[in-house]
Design a protein that fits this description.
alpha/beta, 8-stranded mixed β-sheet, 8 strands
Length: about 300
């Protein structure tokens, strides 16, 4: 099966996110269709860039998206986009793309607990678009002396970003955002009818370098207990390809698939998707080339 036959995924999210799953749009779309979940509420308890969910919303696959992230900075960005998009658009149009402005926005981000939501939301966005690989605690593209081959403005395409924000704003009444523990969001939503949970928690390996709220083993185990106790509900879980996933979910269907990442360095990574018992499987659809395998 060629990639062209699978269709084209919409690029909607304004955020560059390490480990982002917008590339799973086509697989998730097929899950929605195969399981007759069209028009459902789609929940991302560890949303980050929320690329897949927004793609499902704007293409009419789902009717509502719940975006949750425990990181206050990420939450602030989504809250800003949905409640004060004019402020965000104005800041993007007038943005100074240099290391002096970067340092100013970095200060706002570092003081996130004291920063206002709008200021913090924009600072988060600014750093995401001007930092290496979109990692918020990384340095600016091109370095502080701007001697690198790419400069700080390399990923700050104003017109493209403004258009993505305009499109998302059209759907603001169908998007809810929150800043809660992801497990609490799952527990609140998972038993609801016509709801699909897509859980993409911090991974086991290298998570501390990418996420502010990295998981401990106890966090992974608590999530496992919650999801396995609701195996007849509609949920999907993705993880890095490590033996611990099999240990935690031995009775659930698991597929190995590949994704392309650009964080730190371009690479392809093998990952694992775990499916609840209630979902009909899309089988080979978990890889663009149809070479996924059931584990």
């Amino acid at each position: 099966m060629s990639t062209s036959k699978l269709g084209v995924r919409p690029r909607i999210s304004p955020l560059r996110y390490p480990g982002g799953k917008s590339a799973l749009y086509i697989r998730l779309r097929d899950v929605v269709r195969t399981n007759k979940l069209a028009g459902c509420t789609y929940v991302e308890p560890y949303a980050g860039g929320a690329g897949a969910g927004l793609g499902l919303l704007v293409t009419g696959q789902v009717s509502r998206v719940i975006i949750n992230d425990l990181d206050r900075a990420i939450y602030a960005f989504w809250k800003l986009l949905l409640t004060n998009p004019d402020y965000l658009r104005r800041e993007i149009r007038n943005a100074r793309l240099d290391t002096r402005e970067w340092a100013k926005q970095r200060e706002i981000y570092v003081a996130s607990a004291e920063s206002g939501i709008d200021e913090l939301g924009y600072a988060t966005f600014y750093l995401n678009r001007t930092n290496r690989s979109g990692v918020l605690n990384a340095g600016p593209i091109g370095g502080h002396d701007q001697s690198g081959p790419y400069k700080i403005d390399a990923r700050f395409n104003r017109e493209t970003l403004l258009e993505r924000i305009r499109i998302i704003s059209l759907y603001s009444s169908q998007i809810d955002v929150s800043c809660r523990d992801g497990k609490d969001v799952i527990a609140h939503q998972i038993d609801r009818a016509n709801t699909l949970i897509y859980a993409d928690p911090p991974y086991f390996e290298k998570a501390h370098g990418l996420y502010l709220n990295a998981f401990t083993y106890a966090d992974h185990a608590a999530l496992e207990n919650l999801l396995n106790s609701r195996s007849q509900c509609s949920w999907i879980l993705t993880y890095d390809n490590v033996p611990t996933v099999e240990e935690l979910y031995p009775d659930r269907r698991r597929h190995e698939f590949e994704l392309y990442y650009s964080a730190h360095r371009a690479r392809r990574a093998k990952e694992i998707v775990v499916l609840s018992d209630s979902l009909m499987d899309v089988g080979e659809g978990w890889t663009a080339a149809g070479q996924g395998r059931l584990l």
